[in-house]
Amino acid sequence: MVHFNVGFQHFNSFADITLSLAQTLDKMGIPISVEPSTIASQISDNSTTEENHLLEKWMNTAPSDLFQIKWSHYWKPCFLKELKGHLNLELFAINYEFAKNTDDYDYWIYDAVNNLSHKLAVSQYSKNVLIQAGCPSDKVSVMPLGFNPLISQLYFSRSQKNPKDVKYILHMTNSFDLYRFGTDIAIQAFWEEFRNDSKVELVIKDGGKHPDVIVEYLVNIEKQFGKFKSRIRIMPKFCNKAELADLYLSADAFLAPFRGEGFAIKILDAFAAGLPVAMTMYGGPTEYANADNCYPIAYDLIPVGKCYDTQNLNLRNDPHWAEPNVQSVREQLRKIVEDPMRFQVAQKARETANLFNWEAAAQKLLRLMRELF
Fold first, then answer.
1. Cα→Cα distances 147→240, 270, 288, 352, 360, Å
2. Which residues contact 98 (CB under 8 A, 6 or more apart)?
3. Residues in CB range of 75: below 8 A, 6 or more apart
4. What is the pLDDT of residues 194-250, one digit of tens each?
5. Most exposed among 135, 323, 356, 370, judged by the fewest C-beta atoms under 10 Å?
6. Is residue 90 within 8 Å of 26, Cβ to Cβ?
7. DSSP of 205-221, one letter per residue?
8. Backbone angles phi, psi at 193, to 5 degrees
């Protein structure tokens, strides 16, 4: 039996990933339990009846003391949870790396390096950060995540588009952390490259609750440079997995000029949808992305700027991440719209995504538990 010491009172990536992994293990016949908690409305209202019944069942199942899993994170609801299993595992993801390790680390990284739980890094990048911070390499394993399976189920029912149709470029962001997702760079590069082209549209899907921040940024650009013909649409609506799958499959391309990512399921979802993807070739997504299956955006390493982590942690040891080159973003934007080879590149991306599904993640977890127990 596997116990996830994870609550579902808030909808976030931790809850979403835990649900996908637990559900996959359940289908494989592995008994599951989760921490009893209230369930966020975004989860209960947008889950299937089967998923809601599973959550209720798992919460009413006594926790196993055999295998226990939680998320390693500085958020107190995660950080303060205790694991009491014979084998304790912590899922770990990070969006930046450290230039040195001569100072004391913040309490989160210090704990992740020094506690007795085995770490499940979601990417080789995240594993390397832990090792460079002093965590023994035999205390960290890599367990990549999976994409939204509804994308594959709906993929072949997608209607073929007229090549003369408007090109929709999708950018996924979160208004709580716009800078990390590179939304400012996405807007700037799109404006500079397509300012006089009304046939191309940038669709910004906001997963946060402050789309007005994005609107304000657009207004400031127009005040500075004047009105432009290119179209930018903001989608602040919460989407369930089916709606997200449809959103990916209705797009023509995907733009991700991020500064830091630990894995980025949203980019893997774009791969699975068969979209040509322009993305920063840095961090966790290099677990599945390469120069053959996407359009790499060049970058420089810079100190970590304003983001959710710097607002909540006293980061030390010169944390740094990527600063995408705007000219490179413009060039790759143009390619995902006009490159005659973009469909072949997108097909390679889709083939790659099929290797990163939740069944593969669950099988990897089971193998690791057998090896470590």
1. 14, 9, 12, 11, 11
2. 105, 129, 132, 133, 317, 318, 319, 320
3. none
4. 988 888 999 999 988 888 989 888 888 888 877 777 789 999 888 899 999 999 999
5. 370
6. no
7. EE-SS-HHHHHHHHHHH
8. -85, -30
Rg of the chain, C-alpha, whole Å: 21
- List the one residue out of 26, 330, 312, 314 whose CA is nearest residue 186: 330
DSSP assignment of 250-275 equals H-SEEEE--S--SS-HHHHHHHHTT-
Supply the pLDDT for residue 371: 95
Quick one: pLDDT at residue 238? 85
72 neighbors 109 (Cβ within 8 angstroms): no
The residue whose two tokens read 């040509």 is 276
Pairwise CA distance, residues 167 & 200, whole Å: 5
Residue 162 contacts residue 247 (beta carbons within 8 Å):
no
Residue ranges in 76-164 assigned as alpha helix (H): 76-79, 107-114, 124-132, 149-155
What is residue 160's predicted lDDT score, i.e. its pLDDT? 60
**CA 36 to CA 55: how far, in whole Å?**
9
DSSP run (H or E) holding 350: helix 342-353
Which residues neighbour 312 within 8 Å (Cβ) at sequence distance 6 or greater?
74
Residue with token string 């694991």: 83
pLDDT in tens, 281-301: 999 999 999 999 999 999 999
Contact between residue 206 and residue 234 where contact means Cβ atoms under 8 Å apart: yes
Backbone φ and ψ for 177, nearest 5 degrees, come out as: -145, 50
- State which residues of the chain have pLDDT below 70: 158-166
Counting Cβ atoms within 10 Å, is residue 338 exposed (0-12), middle (13-18) or buried (19+)?
Answer: exposed
Residue among 367, 12, 20 nearest 4 (CA)? 20
Which 3 state secondary structure label does DSSP give 190? helix
Would you state the pLDDT for residue 147? Answer: 97
